[in-house]
């Protein structure tokens, strides 16, 4: 596959970004994963949904909470979408009918993180950023848990990092074309 852009991490407004140039195909997760989400939100198996929400609120850049075992190994992911769906059922905002009524009955009984988590795909520090991007696109994800070789959660790769790494594909803003918010 041919990659069109060279990635440059020279933005002085982002402290800690490596001052190197790499082709996108050569960038690995370790180059970028801990620049926005410094510490992933996580809870242990059996945590209440209220604690999951507390963790989401404490880390607004992350839209997920990762469920880990006693050895900090990744078990699953709880997304804001899942929590909002459950809240919608309980608050009467989400309508249900037919097949969704069965889901409503199942969802309203869920009280723990491991009841609502999904087992997602993970990446490691050595994963190519292009491979991580493919996982995100294929699975419709905005974030991925970063794990070590033993499956322990060590970070989160947020889609913001992909945007930073790949933005040169779109070139620079044409000065003759006003930005949307400019009048």
Describe the protein in words:
This protein is of the alpha+beta class and 183 residues long. It has a single domain (6-170), classed as CBS-domain. 32% of the residues lie in helices and 17% in strands. It contains 7 helices and 7 strands; from the N terminus they run ββαβαββααααββα. The protein has helices spanning 29-32, 49-58, 80-91, 99-108, 113-116, 129-139, 159-166, and strands at 6-8, 21-23, 42-44, 64-68, 74-79, 143-147, 153-158. A 3-stranded mixed β-sheet has the order 3-4-5. The chain has a two-stranded antiparallel sheet with strand order 1-2. The protein has a two-stranded antiparallel sheet with strand order 6-7. A hairpin with a 5-residue loop joins β4 and β5. The longest helix is centred in the middle third of the chain and has 12 residues, at 80-91. The protein starts with 5 loop residues before the first strand and ends in a 17-residue tail after the last helix.
Task: Outline the secondary-structure elements.
Layout: E1 6-8, E2 21-23, H1 29-32, E3 42-44, H2 49-58, E4 64-68, E5 74-79, H3 80-91, H4 99-108, H5 113-116, H6 129-139, E6 143-147, E7 153-158, H7 159-166
Parallel strand pairs: 3-4
Antiparallel strand pairs: 1-2, 4-5, 6-7
